[in-house]
Specification:
Blueprint: H1 2-11, H2 14-31, H3 44-49, H4 55-58, H5 68-86, H6 93-114, H7 120-134, E1 139-142, E2 146-149, H8 153-163, H9 168-173, H10 181-184, H11 200-212, H12 227-237, H13 246-249
Antiparallel strand pairs: 1-2
Length: 262
C-alpha cells in the first residue's frame, strides 16, 4: 500500500506536487507549533527592513488551521492547478511556472495596497479563473447540487463570499482585508474570513494578455517566458508524457469540451 501511495504521489505533475506539498507541510508546521502564523504572514515592512524575504513565499502557503476551510482550499488548489498543468500547459512547464510567477507578483502588489496577511486564496481563484476561461464548455457539478458551465465557477465562489458579508471590491481583487493581529495569530479566524476569495481580476489580467490580446488585430504577445525558466524546466516535460491527465481520470464528474486550448 505504501508503494502504491508513493507511486500515486509521484504521478502528480511536479509543480502541482511541490506547491500542494508545501501548503500541507506549512499548515502541519503551524498545527504542531513549529512555526507561528506571525512568522509566515505578508508584511512589506519586515520584508524590506529586516530582509525577511521568505514571507513573499510563505504568505501563499498558509490557509488557516486544520479544518474544513483548509481542506476546501487544498482540494481546489490540487484539482485546478493539476488540470492546468496537465491540460493547456502540458509539455510547457516553464510557461506554467511563469504564469504562477506573474500571478504571484500581481497578487503581491495588490496585497500591498489592500493590506492583507495571506495571499494563497487569491492565488487559487486565479488558477480557477484561468482554467475556467480555457474550458468554457465544460460543465461543473458543484457539491452535487448545482450544474453550470465552467466560466461561472469563480463568480459562484465570489457569490458565496458576498453572502457572508465580504466586500465585492475585495473579492474582485482576489484579496481579503487584514484581520486584527490578535485575532489572526491565535488562529481564531472567523469562519467567513476563511472561505475562498476570488482572484478574478488577476486571473483575467493573465487570460487577456496571454489568450485574448495576441489574437486581436494589431495585438501581440506581451508575456514571454524567460529563457532561464526554459533551461530549468523544459527537461521535466520529457518525463511526463505518459501521465494520464486528471481530467481523464474523473469518472464522469466533468464533461470536457473538445475544443483546442492555448
Amino acid at each position: 500500500m505504501a508503494s502504491s501511495l508513493r507511486q500515486e504521489y509521484f504521478q502528480i505533475p511536479v509543480v502541482t506536487r511541490a506547491y500542494t506539498t508545501a501548503c500541507v507541510l506549512t499548515t502541519a508546521a503551524v498545527h504542531l507549533e513549529v512555526v507561528t502564523p506571525s512568522q509566515l504572514h505578508f508584511n512589506p515592512d519586515l520584508i524590506i527592513t529586516r530582509c525577511q524575504i521568505w514571507r513573499l513565499i510563505t504568505s501563499f502557503l498558509f490557509f488557516g488551521s486544520l479544518g474544513f476551510s483548509f481542506l476546501f482550499n487544498i482540494i481546489f488548489l490540487y484539482r485546478y492547478c493539476r488540470m492546468l498543468e496537465e491540460g493547456s500547459f502540458r509539455g510547457r512547464t516553464a510557461d506554467f511556472v511563469f504564469m504562477l510567477l506573474f500571478g504571484g507578483v500581481v497578487i503581491t502588489l495588490f496585497g500591498v495596497v489592500a493590506n492583507v496577511f495571506f495571499l494563497g486564496q487569491a492565488f487559487i481563484i486565479m488558477l480557477v479563473y484561468v482554467w475556467s476561461r480555457r474550458h468554457p464548455l465544460t460543465r461543473i457539478y458543484f457539491l452535487g447540487l448545482l450544474s453550470f458551465q465552467a466560466p461561472f465557477l469563480p463568480w459562484l465562489l465570489m457569490g458565496f463570499s458576498l453572502l457572508l458579508g465580504n466586500s465585492i471590491v475585495v473579492d474582485l481583487l482576489g484579496l481579503k482585508p487584514k484581520l486584527p493581529v490578535t485575532v489572526c495569530f491565535n488562529q481564531s479566524i472567523p469562519h467567513n474570513e476563511l472561505l475562498p476569495s476570488s482572484g478574478i481580476s488577476v486571473g483575467h489580467m493573465y487570460y487577456f494578455l496571454e489568450d485574448v490580446f495576441p489574437n486581436r488585430a494589431g495585438g501581440r504577445k506581451l508575456l514571454r517566458t524567460p529563457d532561464l525558466l526554459h533551461v530549468v524546466f523544459d527537461q521535466l516535460d520529457n518525463t511526463d508524457e505518459r501521465r494520464l491527465p486528471l481530467e481523464e481520470q474523473q469518472d464522469g464528474e466533468l464533461q470536457q469540451d473538445e475544443g483546442p486550448h492555448n
